[in-house]
Amino acid sequence: MAWFLAVKEFRQLLETPRQVSLDEVETVFATVFLMIAWEWQFGHSVRHLQLHLQGVRSLLETHPQLFRIKDVNDMFLSPGPGSPSDEPGTVAKVSFIPEQFLLWILYIDSSCQPMGLTESLNDYVAKSGNPALQPDHLHRCARLWGRCFWGEQYPDEEVLDDIENYRALELLHDGFCLRHRTWKALVDSAAGTADSADVIFREILTIREKFSDLFITARFSAGVSARRTVNTVYMAVSTFYAQVILHRRLLRVDAFPAAIHQQATAGIIDIAQKQFLSDPNLLRRLHWPLLMALIEINDPTQQAWLRQRLWELREFHSEYVWVHDVAEQILAQQDVSQGRYVNLAELLLQRFHAQ
User: Fold this and answer.
1) How far is CA 296 from CA 22, 34, 130, 182, 186, in A?
2) Per its UniProt entry, which superkingdom is the organism in (predicted)?
3) Residue 336 pLDDT greater than 50, yes or no
4) pTM of the entire structure?
5) How many Å apart are CA 36 and CA 43, to the nearest integer?
6) Domain containing 6: what range?
7) Could you give the count of Cα atoms lying within 13 Å of 213 in the half-sphere of its Cβ?
């Protein structure tokens, strides 16, 4: 009961128009993110998650001044004379912490749309007209927040880690954006207002060309690496491959797999096996690619291996339970070896409307 009262009071606070300091913004978004992340990972109702996401929307609506384009060049400006931070070696701080939290929240929103979210925070920010809320801008801010916040105290090894992981995280970001657009295209298809399957597919091809170095890296890298960069590349590439398969299964339901879909399926399995041999816990980040590969593959041995991996993930996350249940429902209905694919779009929409 105390939890629900706290949530109610916090939401009322968010919906009350008032002046909010930068420190308060960071505290609020940290709190909101933790509430959403907890519900996403351990909650039992997507409706509760949606209430928290609606709270974020209320905050953005009642406090539109919270997110404005910030000039990172302010980091190079010295404080004015007599300012509290008028000390040698001190520079102005530009905080991108709220942008990082909002970006993570948008990723969760994108992931959970098929689970039954009837409203989309991604749609809201897209229609807001505020460039500071757009996912691509938030992503660029998120890549800078550590260096801007800590300044000269930020360790060199962390700077190098940021630089090494930048392209893989950019590809991962594109994957989340594609997932949102693909699902939205399916839901909005009846109204004729969504992006067409061809438009999204052309973007998929453009992204694949742009990040071709990462796909090559994922293909030929050894399975075990102590470097975080390699694991980030694996996650980004497999997530993108999952979107390639999802696009066909949702928006081109009558099309058989082409070379790009076969490459995506093989790539996911290759990465999953490498990650499993390195550390089985790494598969916790690959639940969506595992699902997509499982419903595409027609090799019984590989299918059994993927199925077992999804079953093992169930205890760690509410979304993993949902993914496992979807996989089992699909496998019970389709026989890929006979060329009989389940209409994934129809199945997910039925589950979506049943929530």
Assistant:
1) 48, 35, 39, 18, 19
2) Eukaryota
3) yes
4) 0.88
5) 9
6) 1-71+94-133
7) 4
